[in-house]
Amino acid sequence: MTITPTRETLDATIVQIIGGHPLSGRIPVQGSKNIALHLYAAALLTDAPVVLAAVPDIIDTAVCAQILTHTGATVTTTGGRFAVAPALATAINPVIHPELGHRVRTTVVLAAAMLARTGQVMLPYPGGDAFCPRLIDRHLAAMQAAGAEVTADATGIRARCGPRGLQAFTVDVNTPYGPSLGATVTAMLLAARARGSSLITHPSIEPEVTETARFLAERGVAIHFDEQGLHVVGSEWITGGGFTVAGDRIEAATMIMAAASTGGNVHLDGITLASIPEGLTAALATAGISLTDDASGGIRSILDGPLRAITTATGPHPALPTDTAPQLAAMLTQADGSSLIAERVYPRRDTHIKGLRAFGAEISATGSIIGVRGPVRLRAASAAAEDIRAVTALLIAALAAEGASTIRGMYHLRRGYGRLLANLATLGADITITSEAP
Ligand SMILES: CC(=O)N[C@H]1[C@@H](OP(=O)(O)OP(=O)(O)OC[C@H]2O[C@@H](n3ccc(=O)[nH]c3=O)[C@H](O)[C@@H]2O)O[C@H](CO)[C@@H](O)[C@@H]1O
Ligand SMILES: C=C(OP(=O)(O)O)C(=O)O
């Protein structure tokens, strides 16, 4: 199956940036990558067609759409609208396409939806960014708790329920790094179809979880959070209808930090301050960037002088999102003083460091603590990265550096950002996209 532009085309793409121009202006924020991907899985649970609006035009949504098609669902994507009509339970092909499933992180969540609909599923090991081992034991524990027998071998995982189908269950989705976002959604989708009332303890409260819960609740699933956890009463019929994907808080953070790294401010449409996690707002405020809701819609970033060094830590929502830490490190190369970012969601997430050093950044990793010394006058460089947020960290460094830099790794960028380069150009970035000769 071919997703366009192809991986080969994107791997051969080189982005040249002539840095040193302050970025300012007004641009739209896309629908959230990670919320959309979990809603694609939730849509597989429904008994009537679903239309998702504001889906981002990225590789991961295209891959997930093809995974859904492979299960027998009818899907169409037009201009940010994703329409899906799942196959009847008896006609679902309970196999996640091995190659496609190995490309995205939500494979195991999609598999949970198929298990919930058909009582069985086969899936490859999930993909997504490979910055460190990313365990799925809590997802599999939820499947087992719901009554499935789960077996795994080198090629993938198989889960199968007995003749009684899914039963109500209790599962704990906590991990040594905090509640698992993905496993909370996996458990929630299983519970939405299990017979009886289930309890998910220590649930994640990331927007991916609360938006998927809202999607299910609007479709008739009884679901609520209390001090015990997340309660879900299984439903025999889950209706369809429309739902809008919330704005991408990680893309918003990326644009704010890119602009601030060049001394500029942005006005972002399609998102409000309520969608920005408190930990992110606080970290930006300490660095000298305040965010406000604008009367005309969207949010504005306002830099109150030279950037300042900060000490901060990533963590589960509403703390600073781990998916913004690489971009933050790039921005802090321009801040006055020594900054520290403690990574608390993944034991190591430091794939951006090597590339940032190529620009002359003074950056170190000691265990899970990233140290950045600034302000450094970055020099133009050629650099590549192999995951979404590491690539955006390099783009930020190139925008702040004097002269012409080249960045590679556009497959990873397009996995999560639909129009980032075009938006940066709108803000005044000097960007040329070329392709390496074959
Ligand atoms: C597609 C998507 O939405 N991806 C996001 C999702 O990933 P994802 O859902 O994979 O992240 P999790 O919240 O599950 O993982 C967080 C931490 O828990 C550990 N863990 C997770 C599951 C498990 O069964 N056992 C276990 O130990 C992981 O190794 C990791 O250290 O949340 C991450 C944390 O906010 C984000 O960085 C990703 O962008
Ligand atoms: C790590 C990320 O995504 P994924 O989980 O899809 O790899 C991310 O969005 O930063």
UniProtKB/TrEMBL annotation:
**Domain spans labelled Enolpyruvate transferase:** 19-421
Keywords of this entry: Cell cycle, Cell division, Cell shape, Cell wall biogenesis/degradation, Cytoplasm, Peptidoglycan synthesis, Transferase
**Domain of life the protein comes from:** Bacteria
User: In its keyword annotation, does this UniProt entry include Cytoplasm?
Assistant: yes
Q: Write down the chemical reaction(s) this protein catalyses.
A: phosphoenolpyruvate + UDP-N-acetyl-alpha-D-glucosamine = UDP-N-acetyl-3-O-(1-carboxyvinyl)-alpha-D-glucosamine + phosphate
Q: In the record, which residues are listed under signal peptide?
A: none
> What does the UniProt entry say about where the protein is found?
Cytoplasm
State if Transmembrane is listed as a keyword.
Answer: no
Q: What is its main location?
A: cytoplasm
| EC number annotated for this UniProt entry | 2.5.1.7
Q: Which GO terms describe its molecular function?
A: UDP-N-acetylglucosamine 1-carboxyvinyltransferase activity
Gene3D superfamilies linked to this entry: Enolpyruvate transferase domain (3.65.10.10)
Q: What does this protein do?
A: Cell wall formation. Adds enolpyruvyl to UDP-N-acetylglucosamine.
Q: Which family does it belong to?
A: Belongs to the EPSP synthase family. MurA subfamily.
PANTHER family, from UniProt? UDP-N-ACETYLGLUCOSAMINE 1-CARBOXYVINYLTRANSFERASE
The protein, known as: UDP-N-acetylglucosamine 1-carboxyvinyltransferase
Species the sequence originates in = Streptosporangium lutulentum
